[in-house]
Fold this protein.
Amino acid sequence: IAEGSLPMRYLGIPLITTRLSHMDCRVLVDKLVSRTSPWISNSLSFGGRQLIASVLFSIQVFWCNTFVLPVAVTKECDRIMRSFLWHGVGTSKKGGKIAWSKVCRPKATGGLGFRDSRSWNRAAIMKIGWDISPVTKACSWSWRNILQARRYLSQSVLYEVRDGNSFSLWHDPWVFGASIVNRFGERVIYDSGIPRNSLISRVIREGMWEWPTTSCDLLELNNITAAIPLPAGRDKVHWMKKGGIFSLQQAWLSLIPHSPVVPWAKVVWFPKRIPKHSFCLWLTFCNGHKTLDKLHSIGLSHSDTCIFGCGQRETINHLFFSCPFTASI
């Protein structure tokens, strides 16, 4: 086998030693665009486009699980999927009926269940950064970015101290979700006389906490940790709760803005539904249809009167609930 040289491609992704650039990811963007081309002439309904958009998303999953993608690349991937969903092509620059941030919410909170590329990439990198070593300047750019994902992990990770041989005494967030350094500052390390790279086991003796008491902060720390039990066995890391296991889906949900559950989700998304009908109903609840009142307000229609001749203003509520014509259907 001939010896290769970097940069090169392996399994379709670039192998490089430097920071990943937009040009390195061009093959991913081109693949997304090329996959949309054969579907343009098929006149897919919105329901069909939802299924196809999920196929487009799966193309970038391998990249998201491997690299910290540049922001420009994740934005371009989202633009292609957004364009295909609303306009049937991957290169349109027109806007959609509903904001992409809302489309990318879970269905239970009013979205379509799509995943934006940026948040999903972070969630995938969080999986790689799960319980690994500290960041050092000697690490490569890619490795440092993977390790930096741990700051997102800290919001959902529960550290259970047992023998104290796995966690950093000063830097891991084991004290009720916070690290000692973040809670008390760097001074506490100097006051204790305990090295910066020490493990928690340094202050455990025969299953009991044993802190130096040379400062007020250390006395307070001794009182705080007295409430933390030290069961026998090895230290454990839990996801969100004791016994919890890391989930990529849950990691993604922890990164996106929280939205309340909408009461109509089960009315729209139910088993054996017809996708295009559910999509139309979803647009109705999200006020996304381009009714005449909207078109008139932006100068695209001369009148906002209902086209069914009832003489009333055409709005979402009127069209679907109070128009005599639609009520008779």
Observations:
- The longest helix spans residues 46-66.
- The chain has three domains: 8-114, 126-255, 265-327.
